[in-house]
């Protein structure tokens, strides 16, 4: 019984890094959902179509439209593309919020900002 108990303790120790990673993923997911909600971001329909058209390129001209129609008839597949496009929209939104400030500097000052 003791051996089993020790194994259980060891197992608990192994899971800790995974729990931390999961917490970070959940927090990031909540943050991204909040950005989408507050700023009313949506997957751009033209970008979704462009992604599907790119995938359709692997088919002959006569099958491209069938592929596109099939894709639009599969809600779970369409959602995957929409989520991918939406992720890019979120990244674009975040970068547009960032304030980029250029400053002249030498290497030492740039690498040790607090030391002057």
Plain-language structure description:
This protein is mostly helical and 116 residues long. The chain has two domains: 7-40; 42-98, no CATH class. The protein has helices at 2-38, 45-56, 61-72, 75-97, 107-111. The model has no long low-confidence stretch (mean pLDDT 84).
Keywords:
extended, 2 domains, mainly alpha, 116 residues
Give a brief outline of the structure.
This protein is mainly alpha-helical. Helices cover 77% and strands 0% of the residues.
Tally the structural domains: 2
Structural class: mainly alpha
Please report which band the strand proportion falls in: under 5%, 5-15%, 15-25%, 25-35%, 35-45% or over 45%: under 5%
How many extended strands?
0
Helical proportion, percent range: over 70%
- Describe the global form: extended
Distance between the termini: 63 Å
Radius of gyration: 24 Å
Total of helices: 5
| Uncertain residue ranges | none
Quote the average pLDDT.
84
| H and E string | HHHHH
Question: Helices, strands, pairings?
Answer:
Layout: H1 2-38, H2 45-56, H3 61-72, H4 75-97, H5 107-111
Helix pairs in contact: 2-3, 2-4
């Amino acid at each position: 019984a003791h051996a089993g108990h020790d194994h259980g303790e060891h197992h608990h120790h192994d899971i800790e890094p995974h729990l931390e990673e999961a917490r970070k993923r959940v927090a990031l997911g909540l943050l991204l959902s909040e950005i989408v909600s507050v700023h009313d971001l949506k997957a751009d329909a033209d970008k979704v179509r462009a992604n599907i058209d790119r995938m359709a390129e692997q088919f002959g001209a006569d099958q491209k439209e069938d592929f596109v129609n099939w894709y639009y008839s599969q809600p779970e597949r369409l959602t995957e593309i929409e989520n991918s496009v939406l992720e890019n929209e979120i990244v674009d939104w975040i970068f547009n919020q960032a304030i980029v400030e250029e400053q002249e500097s030498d290497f030492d000052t740039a690498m040790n900002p607090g030391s002057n």
